[in-house]
Amino acid sequence: MNSLLIRPTILGLIGAFIVALRWFQLRKQVPRWTLAPAVLCVLYVFFRAWVFGRGAGGSSYTLDNYTYYADLGYGFNPGLLANRWVEGLHLFPVISVVYESLILAIAATYAYLLGRPGQPMRVLAMMVLTGLLGMQAYRLLPACGPVYLLGSPCYLGEEAASCADISAADLHPVELDSAFPRNAMPSLHVAWALLVYWLWRSSRWRWIVLAYLLLTILATLGGGEHYLVDVVGAFPFALAVWALCGTPWLPERALTLVSSLLGLLLWIAAIRLKPELFHYSPAIPWALSALLVGGSSFASKRLTICCSVPARSPAAPIRAR
Fold it and tell me: What torsion do the CA atoms of 137, 139, 140, 146 make, to the nearest 10 degrees?
């Protein structure tokens, strides 16, 4: 087996084991179908490369010049800066494990919530829909990531940083190897990790999961797989999935779903149709990013509070009349 696939395979199988073990502990309390995610973890191990390879969205070209140009509007090069920082601190082994352990984090989250009323179906729907909807979102702005656009020698510092220069005159679709997945915008890795954090947010382990989320963001940037605008786009996208997969269906939830989708679409439209907007002033992309990231985080927490239904306490038995 290819050495690059060994670690994801092991992590996926560990995830399947965790789900199966937790299901076995609760087998008298939960239906049999709740074991399905263990099977999905195994399928992920064997079909991972095929699934993500199809994330190209059928596009022969990419708009990486647009996403990269938008990134430069922040006043510096976020991807190269993150890469140099990770390289200088010798963090590549750490972020590689973090980036590949997403399936393990999802499996652990499912196992943690297994046995709670309504949660297994919600978590399963949330994680599956993120992938299905994300692959459709890729078609709106097909992009591969800076390491594919700039090339490894430039991105890893083997060539001068001047190779990363780009101007408004370079804003046109570019042909990149069709083997490169067009799965940059939005970053589903960050979206999944964000959903995992929101699901753990009320637990005592939330700080560990928050650290995992932050390391995932660092890994997506430092590894060259995503632009900063991809990471920002992951927040309204994750919020849309969060709203879509919740119960009960209240006006607050519908409003959150519509506003999050609108925010994501406007963000993509600005990058694709009006990229010069990011270069009027660095304050503009920073303000818009703060609005999307902060607003999505606040809305997800508010939605959890206002729309949650208290579960019956297991410690309170039902007395017979």
Answer: 90
Q: How many domains does the chain have?
A: 1
- Give the 3-state secondary structure of residue 62: strand
Residue in the structure block whose two tokens are 């789900």: 19
Which domain covers residue 208, as residue numbers? 59-91+115-307
Beta bridge partners of residue 39, listed in sequence order = none
DSSP secondary structure string for all residues of 137-198: HGGGS----HHHHH-HHHHTTSS-GGGG---GGG-S-B---TTS----SS-HHHHHHHHHHH
Write the single-letter amino acid at 205. Answer: W
**pLDDT tens, per residue, the chain with 321 residues:** 444 567 778 888 898 999 999 999 998 888 889 998 898 888 877 766 555 555 445 567 899 999 999 999 999 888 888 888 888 888 888 888 888 899 999 999 999 999 888 888 889 999 999 989 998 999 999 999 888 888 777 776 666 666 677 777 788 888 887 778 888 899 999 999 999 999 999 888 999 999 999 999 999 998 888 999 999 999 999 999 999 987 677 788 889 999 999 999 999 999 999 999 999 999 999 999 999 999 999 999 888 776 554 444 444 443 433
Task: Evaluate whether residue 199 is within a structural domain.
Answer: yes
Is residue 5 a contact partner of residue 103, using CB atoms and an 8 Å limit?
no
The DSSP string of 88-149 is: HTT-HHHHHHHHHTHHHHHHHHHHHHTTSTTHHHHHHHHHHHHHHHHHHHGGGS----HHHH
Of 231, 188, 194, the C-alpha closest to 209 is 194
27 found inside a domain: no
Task: Look at phi and psi of residue 27 and say left if phi exceeds 0, alpha if psi is from -120 to 50, else beta.
Answer: alpha
The verdict on residue 87 lying in a domain is yes
